[in-house]
Amino acid sequence: MIDLHCHILPGVDDGALDVRDSLAMARQAQTDGIEMVCATPHIRHDHPLAIEEIEERVDALQAAVDANGIDVRIVPGGELAQTEVDRLDDEQLRAVSLGGARDRANGRPGGWVLLEPAPGPLADGLNEAVARLTERGMRTVIAHPERHAGVDFAERLRGLVDAGCLVQWTAEFIAQAPVGEYVMGLAREGLVHVLGSDAHSSHGGRPVRLAAGFANLARVCSPEQMDWTIRTAPAAIVRGDRTLSVPAG
Q: DSSP letters of 153-183?
């Protein structure tokens, strides 16, 4: 399993407090069967971070993970706020893409970016940000839509998917959803594409776990859909495969 959304980098945002906290999160991941974690620090105005340092910080954390015998790979990424899309140059955009992928043929950014919607219900500004990212060679994963529900929520999600986006739901939220709940209907429709832990610390809050979310999702989705959700889509995202498409229902 691959965790596409995790605040495991120490001391950079509201995530892991220090390296010990990061290591404890990595151990949670290993226990759950997660083999790879995308480090996705907040890229937004209230969490100042030198984007150019992300890869170096990931390498340092990986060295600590390896030194402690934890069998988890950490790869670069970022949780890019909708409001920050236009602030980043191409190299910075590459640095925050999931897995750090780029289009090496022409030097442009490439791959997938995890995009955090603005507070409140999903709105036109998110679609506009997605369009601008598309123009710059990026595909988009929409982060934690469950926090941005409005009266036209499903319609908004369908529009984003039609624009080429994938939708990342929080694993703990999915794990706790009863089969008859609204979100599980969206899953049946094919609007739950990938899961992420969105874990921030080993000391409390959401753990670095995906398995329970996938297990609950499997109650309403076909084995073929689950294989795509658990394995095919996350692997394609971290290697920067922009040809990935949602399988037909």
A: HHHHHHHHHHTT-EEEEEHHHHHT--TTSHH
Q: In terms of CATH architecture, what is 2-238?
A: Alpha-Beta Barrel (3.20)
Q: Is 59 exposed, middle or buried (0-12, 13-18, 19+ CB in 10 A)?
A: exposed
Instruction: Report the pLDDT averaged over residues 37-57.
Output: 93
How far does CA 44 lie from the centroid of its chain?
16
139 in Cβ contact with 112 (< 8 Å): yes
Domain boundaries, the chain: 2-238
Q: Do residues 246 and 193 touch, judged by C-beta distance below 8 A?
A: yes
Q: Helix crossing, 124-135 with 153-162: angle to 10°?
A: 10
pTM to 2 decimal places: 0.95
| Tokens found for residue 29 | 């991941």
Q: What is the pLDDT of residues 64-98, one digit of tens each?
A: 999 999 999 999 999 999 999 999 999 999 999 99
Please, are residues 214 and 226 in contact by the beta-carbon 8 Å criterion? yes
Task: Concatenate the DSSP letters of all residues of 49-110 into one string.
Answer: --GGGHHHHHHHHHHHHHHTT---EEE---EEEGGGGGG--HHHHHHHSTT--EETTTTEE-
Residue 238, CA distances (Å) to 47, 92, 153, 198 in order: 24, 17, 27, 16
Does residue 157 have a pLDDT over 90?
yes
